[in-house]
Amino acid sequence: MTAVVHVRRVSGLVLAFAVLAGAVLLSLLVGSESVGIGQVLRVLFADDRSDVAVIVHDLRMPRTVLGVCVGVALGLAGALMQSLTRNPIADPGVLGINAGAALGVLVALVGFGVGTFRGYVWFALLGAALSTVLVYAIAGRGPGAGTPVRLALAGTAVGAALAACAEGIVYLDPKSFDEYRFWIVGDIAKPGMAVVVQLMPFLAVGVLLALSLGPPLNALGLGDELGGALGVRVVRTRVLVGLAMLLLSGIATAAAGPIAFVGLAVPHLAHGVTGPDQRWLLPYAGVFGGILVLLADVLGRVVLPSGELRVSIMTAVIGAPFFVFLVRRGEVRMTGARVVRVAGLSLRVRPREVALTGVLAAVLAIVTVYALTVGKYPIPVPDVLRMLTGGSGPIGADYVFWTVRLPRVLSGLLVGAALGVSGAIVQSLARNPLASPDVLGLSGGAATGALLQIVLLGGSALAVAFSSLAGALVTAAVVYLISRRAGVSGFRLVLVGIGIAALLSAVNRYLLITAELDDAFRAGVWLAGSLLNRTWEHVTIGTVAVAVLVPAATVLSRRLGLLELGDEASIGLGVPVGPTRLGLFAIAVGLAGAATAAAGPVAFVALAAPHIARSLLRTAGPSLVGAGLVGSVLLLGADLAGQAAFPAGDLPVGVATGALGGCYLAVLMGRWWRRGSMR
User: Residue 2 and residue 444: Cα distance in Å, rounded?
Assistant: First the structure.
């Protein structure tokens, strides 16, 4: 039986290489200028500098070679990342590699005036390397250093902070935005063969290193203790995996920008063929990645009557529907889900939790009052309290307070609470620490609605808010309907959401790069999330959502905790699993959609607030109230920090939440891990 399986895997790999060779030939043939296969074969090894030879050697050959290299690198890096973290929704970006590369590009553009691809590619690689080193430094502290969950969480925190720094540079220096918005979409047409040749040795080392890690990764898949007993050096293996991912994903991102969806989807496709054996999954993932990128690039050249679509848009358009199809068939599953201790789900009142919740509420009250006093027109605390109780303030203060300051602060408070509670629900339903409403595609749907309103209709801020809310709700309905086959599980919702989010991301990127610069910049500011120019209409959206949905979530919180035990155990404890999951999903969608409509897709709050709340309150299960309070404090604090750091400008609050929240979560995790209190 083993011999038969071995023969099938070898035959399948040979067939995959044959398909890759066909994709290479197709890439050389297809383009705006038709070239026959005979002409290609004639000039392929004899460059006579004819028109056909120039097209093949100078234009199509470099992008074809780069497409293969990038696809192989991202496929291998994605498989390594999912194996390392034991998390099927992880991709190379989880280690902050993409965010580090993006920040490196911006430093080159803004700080050093480097405007050529050959110049800033090395800055991108350096940024990716520094982010990876920082992640390993944070995750490697204390007992149990470098565990999969630590690496994933530390990478997410560092990536969010670096991405926020990059967005801050972009919006404070609009001149760099035009160059950056095209690089961030990802493309393999721009670099020439000279750049490809320079990067090839790094990629070759990364590929060889990745393929050599198959056996130890198989052993670690059984658990660290058993893997160590089988002779695997756990720490050394994880460091080598990180180095391989840096070489593969860092080089690919530096050379072509962040190509969407390849590192996430390709390992699942390979797993469907090979099973969990990393010795076979890794080479299959590499070949499948090359095929996906090349076919996406070829289709991008011909799908439009004039011009072409960038490869990162097409990888999402091609890969996402197939990925969703696999999820519906049950081919993509979650493995290694943890069971939470039943004691952590007890309804007993815990003095520490109650006390710290009260402290969080007090801190939120103090931050709220302070935020009402701060701005270009300072208002003393006594005047703020007098106006809040119905009195009048100094001349001019009433207008600033009631029209500008109070709507902004209340919007921040409500949006933070909605995102915190929504994130806690999604992470609990998915039983995955990296899940958030963004993963369900809600932010992507909201962004699509907002971009259509901004780019095509030029709508007002209120029109953009309602369009984004409609986009989020429609996306949620599509995700749920697709997930209904064979019963809706929390993890199936997440996987389908990832596929839909990838499709929407492709649409959004296309809208962003085809828009006029002014519209694109306005859309970019909205996509970062902002509390600037909030009105009472925005406050009303947040108030209705929080007042209705947060109490409903609190009522269902006990059932939410029991769902973390698994469906069978929950049914045995009397929980109606289907209706409960649907109700909680609807609550999370409503909160996230309302928050996005009120302030745009604010980064990182929904992901970080539940983790910070659990760490502070030391609860094993979800803490909805704590997550809501932390979300509000985090969002208002970030807005205050942004105003203090840039008093002359209007820094989007999403930039500040990503930077401050990512740094705080990284420091908090490092402190707990050093003490051995958070595993």
Answer: 44
Pairwise CA distance, residues 385 & 389, whole Å: 6
End-to-end Cα, the chain, rounded Å: 40
Q: Where are the beta strands (DSSP E) in 481-578?
A: none
Residue 506 near residue 627, CB atoms below 8 Å: no
What are 2's two structure tokens?
């083993």
Helix (H) or strand (E) holding 481: helix 461-483
Q: What is the pLDDT of residue 145?
A: 56
Largest CA distance in the chain: 87
Q: Can you read off the two tokens belonging to residue 28?
A: 């050389």
Can you give the pLDDT at residue 140? 66
Options 3.10.310.10, 1.10.150.130, 1.10.3470.10, 3.30.930.10; CATH for 342-675 is 1.10.3470.10
HSE-CB of 582 using CA atoms within 13 angstroms: 11
pLDDT value at 49 more than 50: yes
CA distance 601 to 624: 20
Long-range contacts of the stretch 194-198 (C-beta < 8 A, 24+): 194/118, 195/117, 195/118, 195/121, 195/255, 196/62, 196/65, 196/66, 196/69, 196/255
Q: pLDDT tens digits, residue range 151-207?
A: 776 777 787 778 777 777 776 676 677 777 777 777 888 777 777 787 788 889 999
Q: Shortest CA distance to 216 belongs to which of 189, 234, 196?
A: 234
Is 429 in contact with 563 (CB distance < 8 Å)? Answer: yes
Give CA–CA dist 653/636, Å, rounded: 9
- For the beta carbon of residue 214, count every other beta carbon within 10 angstroms: 18
Each residue's pLDDT tens digit, 395-433: 778 888 889 899 999 999 999 999 999 999 988 887 777
Distance CA 286, CA 267 (A): 9
Q: What is the dihedral of CA 540, 541, 543, 546, to 10 degrees?
A: 170
Count of helices and strands (H, E) across the chain: 31, 0
Superfamily of segment(s) 2-329: ABC transporter involved in vitamin B12 uptake, BtuC (1.10.3470.10)
User: What average pLDDT is seen over the chain?
Assistant: 80
Q: Which long-range contacts (CB under 8 A, 24 or more apart) does 511-518 make?
A: 511/448, 511/451, 511/452, 511/455, 512/181, 512/185, 512/451, 513/181, 513/182, 513/185, 513/310, 514/455, 515/451, 515/454, 515/455, 517/177, 517/178
Residue 433 to residue 416: CA distance in whole angstroms: 19
- CB distance 618 to 679 below 8 Å: no
Q: Which helix (H) or strand (E) holds 183?
A: helix 174-183
Q: Report yes or no: 631 and 420 within 8 Å, Cβ to Cβ.
A: yes
CA 510 to chain centroid, in Å, comes to 18
Give the SS3 label for residue 175: helix
* Residue 633 pLDDT class (50, 70, 90 cuts): very high
Q: How many CA atoms lie within 13 A of 457 on its CB side?
A: 13
| CATH 1.10.3470.10 domain locations along the chain | 2-329, 342-675
Those residues whose C-beta lies under 8 Å from the C-beta of residue 427, and which sit 6 or more positions away, are: 433, 435, 436, 610, 622
